[in-house]
Design goal:
mainly alpha, MetI-like fold, 2 domains, globular
């Protein structure tokens, strides 16, 4: 009987040991699959960037037959593109993107505060209308936007066609919808007891907003401004339709015009211009990445 008990004990022990080993094997297999998928995603994301950087140093101006590591790297393409009014193009893009981002951040923050804290007739319907408008791509409104700027330009010339002001006006209208919803969700996560404590102390709605709520919602405002800046800075379609004067070209439009005027032969300078143009966006992201992560995650949990 004792032998039977010992045999049963050894059997149970071996079963538990095998189960543990099987669990470890499954964990290792799952981890290997995750690492493989992550590596593929990283390669898929980084390869176009590395290829563009390589093309900017490639002595030939062709991307066909190009190697990832050029045999004789050169800075000639950077000198070529910088001989063009490149810094004017970059300044135009930076100016339009910065002004649009600041205005969108300020206006959408106030609108989101009103939608979150105040109650009035038609509030829910207006929120649904804002969300519905975002469903349709901006390209569907291209003709309407062109005609709208043409009419506005007859009364306010600096907001008409072929002006940076008109382009900023379009970007503001296109970005505020989704950002209002994003900021509203963040405001909803802030306890209303903070507002009530301010009212008890005699604070006005503006004082409650600026002194109590704004320090708490600053991260989501920064996120909204960064997303608007990125989308505006890298946009090509709107400037292509609304801007015709070469001195008002944005960077993306100017690079496209440059490669088109040279019959798609100067891919080296085009790649060099793309690399330089990406530096402000990368630097801005690295500087404000804590705000981006904190702003996008903090508003996801209400409480």
């Amino acid at each position: 009987m004792t032998a039977t008990v010992n045999t049963a004990g050894r059997t149970a022990s071996s079963t538990i040991s095998g189960w543990r080993q099987s669990k470890k094997a499954r964990y290792r297999f799952t981890l290997a699959i995750k690492l493989l998928v992550a590596a593929l995603c990283i390669v898929f994301s980084l390869f176009p960037i590395l290829w563009t950087i390589s093309a900017s140093f490639n002595p030939t101006s062709s991307v066909s037959g190009q190697r990832l590591i050029p045999a004789n790297p050169t800075l000639a393409h950077y000198r070529t593109i910088l001989n063009e009014p490149y810094w004017l193009w970059m300044w135009n893009s930076f100016k339009i993107a910065s002004i649009s981002a600041v205005l969108v951040g300020i206006i959408t923050m106030m609108a989101a505060y009103a939608f979150s804290r105040f109650r009035w007739a038609g509030r829910s319907q207006l929120l649904l209308v804002i969300l519905l408008i975002q469903v349709f791509p901006a390209v569907l409104a291209m003709v309407a936007l062109f005609a709208l700027l043409q009419q506005i330009g007859t009364y306010v010339p600096w907001l008409g066609l072929n002006t940076h002001g008109g382009l900023i006006l379009i970007y503001m209208g296109g970005a505020m919808g989704i950002n209002v919803w994003l900021m509203k969700g963040f405001f909803d996560s802030v306890p209303r007891e903070i507002d009530e404590s301010g009212k008890v102390d005699g604070a006005s709605d503006w004082q409650i907003f600026w002194r109590l709520l704004f320090p708490l919602v600053r991260p989501i405002m920064v996120v909204s401004m960064i997303l608007t800046f990125f989308g505006t800075y890298s946009d090509y379609l709107m400037p292509r339709v609304m801007i015709t004067a070469s001195e008002k070209f944005t960077l993306m439009l100017a690079l496209q015009q440059y490669i088109g005027d040279n019959f798609s032969q100067d891919w080296g300078p085009f790649a060099a211009g793309s690399v330089i143009g990406a530096i402000p966006m990368v630097a801005l992201y690295l500087i404000l990445q804590d705000y981006i992560v904190g702003g996008l995650t903090a508003g996801a949990v209400k409480g």
